[in-house]
User: Fold these one by one.
Assistant:
Number 1:
Amino acid sequence: MHELTEKEFNSFKRICEKDGIKYDTEEEYREAARNLFEYVKLTYEMAREHHGWEQRLKDEPRGFWLDSAGRTCYVCHTNVHGQIWFDKWGLKCANCQEAFEKKVFPGYVLKDRDNEKHVTDSQLNWKYGVCPRTIKKLTRTGLLKARQIPNGPAIFLRKENPDLPQIIRDYKKPAPSSSNK
Ligand SMILES: [Zn+2]
């Protein structure tokens, strides 16, 4: 993709004026335009790359390894430096991919970005406020049914844990005002 041209810069300025966005100096306009341009370029390149992978899936429907310099595994959310697996469900680190092949968890977990169908142990902690020790205890006693990825997170499928909302209500850490800190 080319660099930002004068014509594009001028049209950026016009759009700013129309939308009531004001910068004090010409240099600030240029910087804002450059930032937007870089952002669009990056988004476009990512979309194009993704499209390329989708095309490749037609010949390799099971999926394939990609070089990764910090891409995120959709399952355990760690940044992968090395090889990452891509298939119709998305990106998986080698560890999660191995567990997936052994059918430890279903593929829909990768698409379930809003936790409507599953939640991981670390999400139960940071997103829903249940402490890790409690999660382990509930799993051990069978109140929570976990799909444990070896060396990875525990996954709780909502359909296997219909009481999850109630459990979260019951075991949530107390609000800061009622704790010692
Ligand atoms: Zn992973």
Number 2:
Amino acid sequence: MPELKFDITRVRQDFPTLNQSINACPLVYLDSGATTQKPQCVIDTTAKFYTDENANVHRGRHTLSENATIQYENVRAQTATYFGVNSSEIVWTKGATEAINLVANGLRKQVTANDTIIITPIEHHANLVPWQVLAQQTGAKLAAMPLNKDGTFDTELCLKFIKKQKPAIVAISHASNALGNITDLPTIIECAKSLGAIVVVDGAQSAMHLKPNLKILDCDFYVFSAHKMIGPTGVGGLYGRYELLNALTPYQTGGEMIQTVTLYESVYRDAPAKFESGTPNIAGITAFGAALSYLSQFRHAEIFEHEQAVFNYAHSRLAKIDGIYLYSSVKNNIGTLCFNYKDEHPFDVATLLDGYGVAVRAGHHCTQPLMAHLGINGSVRASFAFYNNYSDVDKFIDALQACIAILD
Ligand SMILES: Cc1ncc(COP(=O)(O)O)c(C=O)c1O
């Protein structure tokens, strides 16, 4: 295994949750696909906000409120820089799920019964159900992209399918949350956009691992969750190409998103304000700024290289165990291992692993269509982040061998 260049010891010290024992064993946290751990600076920023800085944004004239507003807008600018877009193109939401709902609902006046919405079998339910609802409301047709037996896309087949369907919308993940496989988005986006489709990318899993420049990726919408980027829960966002974003119909209305209100009608503000009604998660957004600052101390390539080295090692060790069915590809993967052991229930494997301090996810991972496609009800999922190291892999494999000895 290649030597790690990253100062992983120091990084792990920054994440207090990692430095504890679970069931009398050192914690091996392999559930970052569900939510990442938080560095001390994110925890401290949250506490500092409520201790010293708490005030509402955009509505006060006093110092605390003005400072809170400045911080809140600064984090929007920081987020825009992270993704290579403009501040006015970032809308705060409570997560990727809300952001997809915002887009799907926001398009309801533009979509008609003559339209086709392409979805894919790898999608998280968050990127399926809102499109199903939109299709039901508008009469639009849903069409599922073809998928290889192993859960990977054949890009050529996808392009053929897109050309045949002439979709109005393509909703697709940048990386599968269950398998970790990375989608060949540039080719798919180019094809879909050449036919006039709006491309909505679920970036919940890719935002931290791949740090995409969204102007280069050239998608129209992209959603992310802060809690999968070492930030707090309850914060996420939507990037939208400005003209398309501003053309969405708000799906939540109320205070702060309006220009003027009379008793019987209102005039809305422009994006992003018109999608941010009510009091936002100010502390969370402020702490997300700390998460982005933390990430910015590394070159992204450095993080990715480290993650890939640890993931490749884990993949090769897991693949050698008799009776393991490994569904994740090793190539083009953000660092997720989706597997089963013989016909053992994934809950049993995950519960036994927990007994050795190893935290993995088990179940359908909110991807029931993908599980059906793979011919399984669920799987165990070990998902990695840059704070994992080779020792985590060794402990995980040792624990798995011990579980197997119990199960056999
Ligand atoms: C690919 C993908 N999309 C959407 C979501 C939903 O994200 P959130 O629960 O943060 O809204 C998840 C969460 O696991 C995900 O992995």
